[in-house]
Amino acid sequence: VPKAQPVALITSPEDTQNYEVARQCVEELALYLKPLSNTRGVGLSSTAQSMLSRPMQRKLVTLVHCQLVEEEGRVRAMRAARSLGERTVTELILQHQNPQQLSSNLWAAVRARGCQFLGPAMQEEALKLVLLALEDGSALSRKVLVLFVVQRLEPRFPQASKTSIGHVVQLLYRASCFKVTKRDEDSSLMQLKEEFRTYEALRREHDSQIVQIAMEGGLRIAPDQWSSLLYGDQSHKSHMQSIIDKLQTPASFAQSVQELTIALQRTGDPANLNRLRPHLELLANIDPSPGKKQANFNSLAL
């Protein structure tokens, strides 16, 4: 990058100094994208083309495009830096997990809540049968609904039982998919809420509930892993990524930093990644809400 002319819009010597520090940082970060510049027309999935994952590349491009001279651009840069830090923590946690243990820990967490996942094919059929029974607005007792699903599922999946299907229904119940009507001296009636009477809507809420259980259990699972676990293929990565993004809260970043610290303690931290903790905590304290200009730009420069 050729040496830039002094920026006339910034008059304070201190602000000019901070601007120069920040600009140089962004230029150094932009170099991580350089391997891609000589591969026009080639897919970006090859690890040889960049040190960074696709989500990291996208977040870094956002940061590089922020206009640091303007206040709004600096606020955007703060949020972009926070987002980049958050993704970094997620990827580091994934690197320090045992993939074999991950799935067993996930299903153990699901079962601990009285729910069950029966495998991609069987779960899909079970959900479609729940929909078949309730998509017209019918209200059934849990017992009748479970029996309906089991009877139609058994020819294809002999292992289907009232207990296992009951646990699938419990998963939907936890996800608040049902409107429940209590009856005196009789079992309650369950009716699918109107917004969940299509397979896509019901499946999204079902998947969100499983992701939430994983997050509550301190498990971090990549979108491609989620796609394999829940669908048995790699074609649902973007669907799972959007669910993960929606479940993120401002507090998720700080929680992830804690989880990374625990993961590093388990492995002995050979790369001394724990030194990043104060920097990550600083990024986690940035308010990610759009339009809030509470962060002092000097703190980013420092």
UniProtKB/TrEMBL annotation:
Q: Where is the Roquin 1/2-like ROQ domain?
A: 105-191
Tell me which domain of life the UniProt entry assigns to the organism this sequence originates from.
Eukaryota
Can you give the residue ranges of the Roquin II domain? Answer: 194-249
Which keywords label this protein? Answer: Transferase
EC number(s) on record? Answer: 2.3.2.27
| Record-linked InterPro entries | ROQ_II, Roquin_1_2-like_ROQ, Roquin_domain
- Is Cell inner membrane among the key words of this record? no
Q: Which reaction does it catalyse?
A: S-ubiquitinyl-[E2 ubiquitin-conjugating enzyme]-L-cysteine + [acceptor protein]-L-lysine = [E2 ubiquitin-conjugating enzyme]-L-cysteine + N(6)-ubiquitinyl-[acceptor protein]-L-lysine
A Pfam match = ROQ_II
Ligase is among the record's keywords: no
Query: What is this protein's record name?
Result: RING-type E3 ubiquitin transferase
This chain's source organism reads Ataeniobius toweri
Q: Gene name?
A: RC3H1
